[in-house]
Design brief:
With 102 residues, the chain is of the alpha+beta class. The protein is 48% helix and 13% strand. The protein has five helices and two strands. Helix 1 crosses helix 3. It is globular and about 45 Å long.
Length: 102
Amino acid sequence: MSLSKTRTSFYRRLYVAHLVATGTASVPAIMEATGMPRRTAQDTITALAELDIHCEFAPEPGQRHNIGHYVIRDWGPIAPDWVTDHAEMLRRALGYPPRDTA
């Protein structure tokens, strides 16, 4: 099944929000988990606000150069349990590699 651009974008945002919520919460970690380019990862994190998902950067205390991670503060109208339950389907639909469970 071929996904429309709209559905691909929506699934990508949901999957990235899921990654952030489950600890894959930095741009390099998201890039590694999905294979997406840095700019796409950054743009996707920013675009979460369009779904009313409140995601913010939490800098590590005492660190310089934007060292830290992202945190989902509010899922807005999105049901996080649905996203968790369907994360594998989202991953497969987007063609992302399986997550390392080690």
